[in-house]
Amino acid sequence: MTRILYTLCGHDESRPFSPHAWKAVMALAHKGLDFTESPTPFTGIPGLEDGVSKTVPILRDGERVVADSFAIARYLEEVYPDRPSLFEGPGGEAMARFIEGWSQTQIHPAVTAISIKKIHDMLGEADRAYFRRTREALLGKTLEEMDTAAEAAIEAFPAKLQPLRHMLRFQPFMGGDGPLFADYILFGALQWLRVVTGSVPFLPDDPAADWFERMLDLHGGIGRSVTTA
Amino acid sequence: MTRILYTLCGHDESRPFSPHAWKAVMALAHKGLDFTESPTPFTGIPGLEDGVSKTVPILRDGERVVADSFAIARYLEEVYPDRPSLFEGPGGEAMARFIEGWSQTQIHPAVTAISIKKIHDMLGEADRAYFRRTREALLGKTLEEMDTAAEAAIEAFPAKLQPLRHMLRFQPFMGGDGPLFADYILFGALQWLRVVTGSVPFLPDDPAADWFERMLDLHGGIGRSVTTA
């Protein structure tokens, strides 16, 4: 059976960086499912799988095509119920939606502020023009203007992880004793920052950094294997 | 069987305001368990149940005494498994710990900034002295100095609920179709603010406000029944 995961890359295919695609990579690895990763530039996405989605990840699993990281996780949980669970019950699936909300509203804007110019710089030529046009229209500033806020965003970043640190006083993963899809949601955001900028700003002796190291070790070190900036 | 939940009150016993005690009230109601609430002033807590805990809630359930809101929820889930679940599986229990971390590190400091002087003012005489001494030592300012930040904290408050709003695009409760203990965690914090100050600052036409109204309606309107400031 053909199983392909379309992810996002710049001019270097070996450094896929989409946070949402990383969630899907980790979900497939969690389920122990083999797949071929197909890193795709921004401007290549509309041509994937008959234009099924404007964004990656997109999963082809035999005859089925599923877009959106959360939809992919739900699909995998439904179709491969005998593999390790991504949610450990309906409560875990529901609360993962809140954790997605936290990551996207609190962590993603911070990662964007830190890395937007660096993302641009790692893209191929066609993608650079697309990225500059769409992001500058969205945020009402030039990429260079946005980049002046990067240093302050780096300083402010460690405080964003306070909810995780509080939880880590009780358990090593959002999933409890082991990782679940909720962990992959936050991991995706921090891996995005790591791949693009080379590091994630943590506190000294930070339990959140220890969690991230545990995440990078998972599933044969699939996260750690990617070359960073 | 005697089931008593010790909660926290000021000079008016009909206005219990502890966020953690409200989590336990809602958890007991969720399980459909009858109980007698025993609102207690700060300075009365060390005398409860042989000084088992420095904080409320404390639950006496027949021969068993359990302190701490999360421990109470876990206890109820274990001892009353045939009643409606508070976690809907191990994933839901684990992720509720993250949601607790979010609420305590992001929402509780904001509620404290808005309401600390008003909390003081609703206490009895002995509690006022205790509260002023401990809080001023903890925060390094007088209550009156802290209160000057209240207006700015009110303005900043609605933005704190962005993760909830994102989630509400997909489902009506953190628990999914219905509330779970995770919802009671955030409810406790907002109910604390509501009981002490009379209202919660929301946006106009705020889906987060709609969620809070749904929470106030639950279990016979047990949250709404409390008189506010």
TrEMBL record, chains A, B:
A Pfam cross-reference name: GST_N_2
Highest taxon of the lineage: Bacteria
Record CDD domains: GST_C_etherase_LigE, GST_N_etherase_LigE
Keyword field contains Transferase: yes
Domain GST N-terminal intervals: 8-84
Keyword field: Transferase
Gene Ontology process terms (BP): glutathione metabolic process; L-phenylalanine catabolic process
MF (Gene Ontology): glutathione transferase activity; maleylacetoacetate isomerase activity
Name of the protein this chain belongs to: Glutathione S-transferase
